[in-house]
User: What shape does this take?
Amino acid sequence: MASILINLLIAAFMGTVLIGLQRKVMARVQMRPGPPIIQYVLHTLKFYLKETSFPKTAAMPFYIAIASTLCAIWVTGIIMGPVTQGSLLLIFGIYAMHKIVEHNAGSSSGSPYGKLSCVRAVFSASAELPLFALLIVVYLQTHTMIISDIITYQSINGPLIFSIPLAGIMFFVLLITKSHYSLFSITKGKDIISGYETEHFGVMRGYLMFSESISWYMLLWIYLTVFFGPLSLISYFMGMIVISVIIAIINAISPILNPNHSVMFQITCAFIGIFGSIILMII
Amino acid sequence: MTELLYLIYILAFVIGAIFGLVLSYKKYSLPFVIEKMDNLALTISIIAWILLINSSLIQFIPQEIIVIVSLFLVSLIIGMRPGYGRKETYVGIIIAGLIYLLRLLIGGT
Assistant: This one.
């Protein structure tokens, strides 16, 4: 229990600091001073102190349940990931749930922006393609889905990034997709205000932001675990900082894509990743 | 135990940054327009970075405590009002890095 709580707090705080760092780096690349690194932490905490109001158009109790579900699935993610190092399949199930929650959070509020975000969430389900492709490639290479076994495999055979590099690149595209202000973040494009979060206020918004921080931490954790093998906690943190900075630079210099282009790009990456990796394995 | 220690490190960083933000808004009433270094912030930054990168230099205090204090001080400067504390941080990192290299060259730990 203590281990779950500690890992949850690490994920929440580290995730928020990494998102803040990403915003800072993006701002510096764009020649702006940018917000303080802890802006996202303050932002999240602020929403817990604000009054929670509910839109008249909200589909109750679905509207409340969806924000709580997002929190619950990421707590499960922490348990299945850093705490027990369980099945990779379950973690990707959690990501699929995240997509469903993203979709439903948009539709449950009744806001037109939320609804548009909801439609885009369905449309951009292709972003999950690299995830499923990755599962196949990793399984073909290691013959296991258990994270602890994948770590053991890497401690014997070396990091997977060298044996299945295309899968690594494919997952990196997924990291960019899930990052804030990315060229693929069509569900939260500024043309639809804050996307599915637009009409979530107070504690509800706090829950969503808290879950997003954990989700970002978990994505980076999975990437480092699956591709770079057994790492110490400090190596994880250093790796997360480096990846966040690289992604921030990419996001800072690239405009948000049109939803059609975003989807096509992700599908193309998934195809190249999966077939390229299988061809490399055969050769 | 290691995880708890790292949680404390993260919390020290976050709390330091919050303090830095609050204090800097009290100290500097204007946005960052005059690009001048603050001597107090510079001193804190240099001490903090030296302690963080060369924490093994001080033997009589447990290393974990040095890291916690130095992370708090580092984030106190990094977390200042946008624009402020940036140059001070660069100077702190450079001086601490030079001391670290010097230690490597003379074979110290």
Notes: The mean pLDDT of chain B is 88. Residues 2-27 of chain B form the longest helix (26 residues). The two ends of chain B are 25 Å apart (CA to CA).
